[in-house]
Amino acid sequence: MYGLDVAVTRWINGLSGLNPTLDAVMIATSEFGIPILVLAVACQWWTRPNREHVRHVLIASGLSFLLGLALNQIVLLFVSRIRPYDNGVTDLLIARSADFSFPSDHATASMAIAAAFLLHGMTRRGMVFMLAAVLIAFSRIYIGTHYAADIIGAAATAMAAALAVRLAYREGTRLDRFVTAIL
């Protein structure tokens, strides 16, 4: 399985360095993708139609985001995978990271947002967020900072987080009504 992971990673990262414009887009996607997604979620707080449900989903996506990143920290206690550029697998387009590679925090965060929207029945928005998440995840391999399997692991932790939040944070509860009534 490692051989396939390396082959896919090398293939995607092999696209880098061929087109300076594409390199710049992928670097920007990697760097600014998550803040833009968070802003896109936050700006929906003042949506008019179906306000209570939308706000519930926004809170759920934020909780999924945070829980996904927390799960990643637990995984990192047991899996210490070095970055692909340190293994000579990829060429790096950005500064080195000090932490381990598996799973990708960027992919987890973005996919957790998308999964929360999808699991709460907001399919159109969820698909837009998932498209953005896939682009962010792809950019992480493209720029050389993650293996393809790091993205698959991130998708698993993102889905686990979104499912856990879906089960634990129920719409219409007293806490939900209190939180969604803010502002």
Give a description of the structure:
With 183 residues, the protein is an all-alpha fold. The protein has one domain (2-180): Vanadium-containing Chloroperoxidase, domain 1, CATH 1.20.144. The chain is 69% helix and 0% strand. The chain is built from seven helices and no strands. The termini are far apart. The model has no long low-confidence stretch (mean pLDDT 92).
Q: In angstroms, what is the radius of gyration?
A: 17 Å
The proportion of residues forming helix, as a percent range, comes to 55-70%
Provide the number of structural domains: 1
H and E order: HHHHHHH
Give the overall form: elongated
Transmembrane segments: 24-46, 58-80, 100-119, 126-145, 151-169
Pfam family, one: PAP2
Domain Phosphatidic acid phosphatase type 2/haloperoxidase: 56-166
InterPro entries: PAP2/HPO, PAP2/HPO_sf
Topology:
Blueprint: H1 2-13, H2 20-42, H3 51-78, H4 105-119, H5 123-142, H6 148-168, H7 174-180
Helix pairs in contact: 2-4, 2-5, 3-4, 3-6, 3-7, 4-5, 4-6
Which terms would index this structure?
69% helix, 183 residues, Vanadium-containing Chloroperoxidase, domain 1
Give a summary of the structure in a few sentences.
The chain has 183 residues and is mostly helical.
